[in-house]
Design brief:
The protein is an alpha+beta fold. The chain has 5 helices and 4 strands.
Length: 172
């Protein structure tokens, strides 16, 4: 599989990936705490709760992680409400971002930490998505019809986290 350390000698070495069950003990409690901290992003409790249940289903050991099996697996899951919480519910990330940034700082903040900004292209065909145009696609390496996302991440000795995203809007 992976060597013991894939970036030996680097300042921020990536440890070996393990499948030890103790590595995820308490994960659902931590997930519940994060969900509680970010609850201000959704005005209504029903979609907020269904989002929590759908993410719990994503973290489950189900062989098929589509909505129906997940909804039947998690306590409080609803086969009809779970997809609506993602597609139709009104979410406002503005009140969530400062809380999330504070959590990242509390968990990983380090005077030697860095912010990494990267533009990545996502191939798209057609004109039905916002920001699609013939443009340089970053990792694609060529001019293609794509969307370009600008991503900001934070990295320190204690970990890394995606901290913000923006969709690049070409002039046309």
């Amino acid at each position: 599989m992976f060597p013991a350390c894939r970036t030996a000698g680097d300042v921020f070495a990536i440890p070996q990936l393990t499948r030890d069950p103790s590595a995820v003990e308490g994960f659902m409690d931590a997930w519940h705490g994060l969900h509680t901290a970010l609850r201000g992003g959704c005005a209504r409790s029903e979609p907020r709760d269904q989002f929590f249940h759908s993410m719990g289903g994503q973290f489950s050991e189900l062989a098929r992680q589509s909505i129906a099996p997940m909804a039947l697996q998690v306590e409080g899951g609803n086969v009809r409400a779970m997809p609506r919480c993602i597609s139709d519910a009104v979410w406002d990330d503005a009140p969530m971002l400062p809380t999330y940034h504070r959590l990242v700082d509390d968990e990983m903040g380090d005077p030697e930490g860095v912010v990494i900004v990267d533009a990545s292209g996502f191939p798209k065909k057609g004109r039905h998505s916002v920001g699609v145009a013939r443009q340089r696609g970053g990792a694609l390496g060529t001019v293609e019809t794509c969307q370009v996302g600008v991503l900001a991440a934070y990295a320190s000795r204690d970990g890394d986290a995606l901290v913000d995203t923006r969709l690049f809007m070409p002039e046309p």
